[in-house]
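*** Residues and shapes ***
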Amino acid sequence: MPINILNLPDDILIQIMQSLDVKTILLLRRICRKLLNFVDEVKPEIRLKSISISIHPDKISVIYRPDQGMYAIEYLNRTYQRVVTRGKGLIFINYDYSNDGKILNNENYVETFLRDFEMILKLQKTVLKNFELKWMSHEEEEKEKCQNLIEKLKKILEPYQKVLACDVMKLNVC
């Protein structure tokens, strides 16, 4: 009989959770409500050194850097797809066309990014070395969108000032 992760004892699941990377934790939360609640309850610790966020008119790119490697996620405003890159080269997992991902139907890419980012901050227990936020648009019509997103980010970031007490913080509008 195959082993189902949902049937494992809690102590085994907790050990598994503590060894997961950022990408896997985010994916695991999307599988079912029981796993989402378990991840939220256990709060597996992640130790990121750096977070870099680039906000473009139709996508948000995030690079998470733990001790080794990197995890990059792009939240795209087209056909509800997500691209994930990892490691030394680039491995693209397209959630519309890949067996490795999950289609994000009827979800707003900004809200999905904000939810994921807030979860990452909840799990981050160590102080970041670097935090970078870049707004990549010169378009006048993007200013309202930018202001709205900045207000939402501000609400998310306020409770995590200790984590964000980093060596280098960059805020850029390009």
Notes: The mean pLDDT is 76. Helices lie at 10-18, 22-29, 33-42, 109-123, 142-157. The first helix runs from residue 10 to 18.
